[in-house]
Amino acid sequence: MTDRPAPTDDDVLGGLEPNQVRLRFAPSPTGYLHVGNIRTALFAWAFARHYGGKLVLRIEDTDVARNTPDGLSFTLESLRWLGIDWDEGPEKGGDFGPYQQTERMDIYADVVAKLLAAGRAYHCYCSQEELEQRREAARTAGQHSGYDGHCRMLTEEQVKAYVDEGRRPVVRLRMPDRPIVFDDLVRGEITFLPENLSDYVLVRANGYPLYPLVNPVDDALMEITHVLRGEDLLPSTPRQVALYEALAEIGVGSGRTPRFGHLPFVMGEGNKKLSKRDPGSGLGEYMQRGFLPEGLLNYLALLGWSIADDRDVFTMAEMIEAFDIRKVNSNAARFDPKKCEAINAAHMRMLAPEEFGSRMIPFLAKAGVLPAEPSAEQRAVLQAAVPLVQERMNTLSESVDMLGFLFVDDAAFSVDPDAAAKVLTGDAGAVLEASVKALADVDWTTEAIEASLRTSLIEGLGLKPKNAFGPVRVAISGRRISPPLFESLELLGREKALHRLEQARASLLAG
Prior knowledge:
Layout: H1 9-13, E1 22-25, H2 35-51, E2 54-57, H3 71-82, H4 105-117, E3 121-124, H5 128-140, H6 156-164, E4 170-173, E5 180-184, E6 188-192, E7 201-203, H7 211-221, E8 226-230, H8 237-249, E9 259-263, E10 266-267, H9 283-289, H10 293-301, H11 316-322, E11 333-334, H12 337-350, H13 353-366, H14 376-389, H15 398-403, H16 417-423, H17 428-439, H18 446-460, H19 465-477, H20 485-492, H21 494-509
Helix pairs in contact: 2-11, 7-8, 10-12, 13-14, 14-20, 17-18, 17-19, 17-21, 18-20, 19-20
InterPro entries: aa-tRNA-synth_I_cd-bd, aa-tRNA-synth_I_codon-bd_sub2, aa-tRNA-synth_I_CS, aa_tRNA-synth_I_cd-bd_sf, Glu-tRNA-ligase_bac/mito, Glu-tRNA-synth_I_codon-bd_sub1, Glu/Gln-tRNA-synth, Glu/Gln-tRNA-synth_Ib_cat-dom
EC number: 6.1.1.17
GO biological process, one term: glutamyl-tRNA aminoacylation
């Protein structure tokens, strides 16, 4: 938690009415979202929903080389799965579209023309070689090595000479010769001195607009009031503030500079910033493993924010109610996979049994254990199994190993070789034979099954429970770890249970 005093809503809103709040989430269409991007989307969504404002989804696809063919569909699928809904953007429309930057090129060209005409931007004809030579000279002299303003005040004759040489200019923004100061919603007042702020490129020499142009232009035209983004982008913020001021001067947008909040880094192993290449960084992995979206979001919210000092588990509705951007910690947050799984497990325990059973079905179906639309009988078995596993599972994909044995046909059933090697040895043959006899005519209820097996295996054979019930568990489930044994036998049914016990015994006899 930060040490700054709790702000008022007026401090955060800056004179706006709560329902005037407009935030944006602006991913690039490069595939499933990265957990750092998801946290940004989550905080922007919670901020907008807390005040009754709007969240705009904008697709920043001007960096064509990074885009993937299915990137947009993956991005939308990611947000839908997470439950982060947007008010304007792809599939929703809105008054400020189009919402894909590659469809807004004419808008950017028009804005650049106005900036040039107003003298807020200028053409720069410096070659890369010339720029690097001057930067190296500045570095050698111990000076700032950014652009030195060489083309700021070119004469008509100098411009003509460059053009005659065949040089194609970039467009640079004319940065103000004064400090740029802004009040960051997470970090407080931040000042950038003019000697550290160079005129930067808005448009490449081929006429293609760059991110430092299109992002603020879109924010201005879409009337974005608050911008939440990662702290890695903080060095570029004074450039954006300067461009917002220039846009206001030429009449582009509302004339209002958004309030910024720079979110702390998410760190991975080795105290390094979590990258897209790191295991556990991509949303697709969590979807495949069977995390609940509400569990994953709950954990990501904890990477910089908390609902209370003594509470880690909460619903998204509770987060929206309590969210305050000024309570986001500015210190880097470490991604802990074990805690993420524990938070997810807590949300699994919170599900109603019927809901928990329904959420397991897609994973059981993908593994071929159940059809996509289970029969009434299969659903009944699944729901009966829920109380046996809901407190034991951390992710939904664990349902395949935990419950698959209840649904597979005997022809498809197999025993894990490692389990067989460790458990189906020694006295296992005698245990399986005694188990078949004990269960042959017993009433098929959990209580009767337990009583009969305890009498036969513990009292009759003189075995400890582990040695008595381990072979039975492996024989009927195929694994060393399963739901409670006696309840599992009842759910599996007499016919299947006895058949599997006999098959396991026959395998032992066959060597």
